[in-house]
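Long-time lurker, finally posting.

We've been working with Transcriptional regulatory protein TcrA (Luteitalea pratensis) and I want a structural starting point before designing mutants. I don't trust myself to interpret raw outputs, so I'm hoping someone here can both generate the structure tokens and explain anything notable. Sequence follows.
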Amino acid sequence: MRLLVVEDDPTISRFLVKGLREDQHLVDLAEDGDAAEASALSGDYDAILLDVMLPAQDGFTVCRRLRAQGVDTPILMVTARDAVGDRVHGLDTGADDYLVKPFAFDEVVARLRALTRRGRTRSLSAILTAGALSLDQEAHQARVAGTPVPLTATEYRLLEYLMRRAGTIVSRDQLAEHVWGGDYDPCSNVADVYVGYLRKKLAGTAAADQIRTIRGLGYMLDRVEA
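Top reply, 14 upvotes:
Generated this for you. Predicted structure of Transcriptional regulatory protein TcrA:
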């Protein structure tokens, strides 16, 4: 997942960003409400982890403004305020879920996964499938016809993004943003190189030809539906 973490407490933000990156997610950090709104409007995120007590705009205001501007990214609101009225207010402003501090990191990850699954139109399962190809998003394991395919962390993120958008064209810029984030050089051909690596891993399997190059536009992973 590509995630936006909005948290002004440096201890908590370091804990969340480090843990989420170790869990193979791409993470951007915003430390106040204005930066959160700007990032959410300009980035294509799978989910937003939004603190309530923030400088500039509070989390309630950020959430309400994002929804008013058509941003439908799943939002997990996080706060130390545990009154029922606060939770109701957060949900009423457009948040999808509400988590009270202190929290366990595993619960944060589980809730984010649940939110992103809930927002998908093609699959409500942690297992993505396209023909003989399957991807277990919890175990970070790819399989073709039940046989495991060993992938590096980058190859996994690339395949996950393609599978979540199976049947649609994905541009090189979209791949770069979701797989490499801010570490990507727009003049680099690294996206093409890693698509090549992924194709080699799938060569000789039933999924060998599923990743197609769409000339001038990018790539598409075929759904291979019966």
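Before you design anything, note these points.
The mean pLDDT is 85.
The helical segments are 10-22, 33-42, 59-68, 84-92, 105-118, 153-164, 172-180, 190-202.
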